[in-house]
Amino acid sequence: MEEFENSEFESAVGKSFDEISRKIKATKTELDNYQEHLEDAENSLNIIQEDVDEKIKSMYKRSQFIPLLIDFIIFTSI
How far apart are CA 48 and CA 72, in angstroms? Predict the structure, then answer.
């Protein structure tokens, strides 16, 4: 009787261990997928940041040109 209980206990423990192991693997896979999505999002944000930086530089260059243009127009009209 005791031998039957031990094998039943070992079987239950083995099943629990297998189930926990499967859940850990599934969680790791899910985390890996999230990591990939985060990396994709980071790459997209870097591309957007580069585009924004270029536009800011372009606007800054134009903003420096406008006062010169105004001065030129004023002085040439005098």
Answer: 36
Query: What's the pLDDT at 1?
Result: 47
**Size (the chain), residues:** 78
- The pTM for the full model equals 0.55
Q: How far apart are the first and last CA of the chain?
A: 114
Tokens matching residue 23: 């859940």
CA dist., res. 41 & res. 49, Å (int): 12
Task: Reply yes or no on whether the pLDDT at 31 is more than 90.
Answer: yes
**Rounded-to-integer distance, Cα 54 and Cα 61, Å:** 11
Distances (CA, A) of 14 to 5, 8, 18, 25, 27: 14, 10, 6, 16, 20
Structure tokens at 32: 């890996």
Closest CA to 34 of 26, 59, 78, 12: 26
